[in-house]
Design goal:
Blueprint lengths: L2 H36 L3 H23 L2 H18 L9 H20 L25 H4 L3 H13 L2 H12 L4 H8 L3 H24 L1
Helix pairs in contact: 1-2, 2-3, 2-4, 3-4, 4-8, 6-9, 7-9, 8-9
């Protein structure tokens, strides 16, 4: 093997080792912070809030589509975290647990206000073959186009929170089907079904808007 190739492989292995080691250190640090926070350490609790403040707000905004509601949801989420941290058993990531709290707060908010959304549970029209395409072929994925982003944003607003949350967790936050299932307390088949219908509906809305 040429020396340069050996060096490249060695560097890649070293980078991978460093990245893995950093993740493990972060996990250990977080576990320690959680234990300290459970014991009443205010600095540890403050550090946890600071570490997840941006993540929680961004996810809340993506679901609520409103800055004030997102800020309120973020506050409610961290209040719930503080009150219930002793119940966190560490069987899932803290981020997974926080996503679940955000999702629950958003669902409760929408149910109180009785918003009207597109009904997808029994609407087979949105899953016709012509709308079941590879999600990666959607134009907004590859084009920096304000108009397309606006079309998508308006389409997402029409999704009910149950479908919007699944779509956001899988296609925007990049979580796995299994992680999404844990957060939403849905089975894997149910997650796949909701994601499938949400994608099909959004594709239909985008295609319709582009034809106008």
């Amino acid at each position: 093997m040429p020396p340069n190739l050996k060096l490249i492989i060695s560097n890649k292995n070293f980078i991978k080792f460093v990245e893995t080691n950093n993740k493990l250190l972060h996990q250990m640090d977080e576990e320690k912070m959680i234990e300290l926070a459970k014991a009443g350490n205010r600095k540890a609790l403050s550090d946890l809030v600071r570490n997840y403040e941006k993540t929680v707000y961004n996810f809340a905004f993506k679901i609520c589509r409103n800055q004030d509601k997102a800020e309120n949801t973020m506050q409610e989420t961290f209040l719930s975290m503080i009150k219930s941290l002793h119940q966190f058993d560490g069987n899932s990531k803290l981020s997974t647990w926080l996503y679940r709290i955000v999702a629950n707060h958003c669902l409760m908010e929408y149910r109180k206000r009785k918003h009207k959304f597109v009904e997808l549970d029994n609407d087979d029209a949105v899953v016709e073959d012509k709308y079941i395409a590879d999600w990666d072929t959607l134009p907004f994925k590859s084009l920096e186009n304000a108009e397309l982003k606006k079309i998508l944003d308006e389409a997402i607003k029409k999704l009910s929170p149950d479908y919007r949350i699944v779509f956001m967790l899988r296609d925007v936050e990049g979580l796995s089907t299994e992680e999404t299932g844990k957060i939403t307390e849905l089975s894997v088949p149910a997650v796949k079904s909701r994601l499938h219908r949400a994608r099909a509906f959004l594709r239909k809305e985008i295609d319709g808007a582009l034809r106008k």
